[in-house]
Amino acid sequence: MLAAMPTLPDWSLRQASEADVPVLAALYAETARRLGEWCYSPPQVRAWASFGEDLAAFRDYVMDATTWVAQQTGSDTVLGFCGIDADGEVRSFYVRADCTRMGLGTALLRHALAVAEQRGLQQLRTWATPFSRPARAGLP
User: Fold this and answer.
1) What are the structural domain ranges in the chain?
2) Side-chain half-sphere of 77: how many Cα atoms within 13 Å?
3) Which helix (H) or strand (E) element contains residue 45?
4) Is there a contact between 66 and 84 (Cβ–Cβ < 8 Å)?
5) What per-residue string of b and e applies to 105-115 under the rule 16 or more CB within 10 Å gives b?
6) Cβ of 58: how many Cβ atoms within 10 Å?
7) How crowded is residue 51: how many other Cβ atoms within 10 Å of its Cβ?
8) Class of the domain covering 11-130
């Protein structure tokens, strides 16, 4: 008998606020700890996750861009976030570990790209790592 695939909860998008910074920082760090080990060493994972502990720097990372938050409908649960700055850099793009590979990241990025296009941005750029690759067999 096959196990049932988890399903993504109903969610909605909203723009991030200052009050979201600690929650987004915790989601960021948890994503690094839970999913980073498939392509990074333990010291690299710890270094990556530690950025979420520097709330002042993390605040700038999120709030110096237009950042959207995916939130579970009817609750305060944040499922992911994505931000693009005024120059077209994708500054953040994270989904909770238990919500990956369900289409949420694709929907978040599509929304951010559509807004960037509406704003007249002609080019976008990002820092991508092996962690950012599309789903492949054996990856989380």
Assistant:
1) 11-130
2) 13
3) helix 42-50
4) yes
5) bebbbeebeee
6) 20
7) 14
8) alpha beta
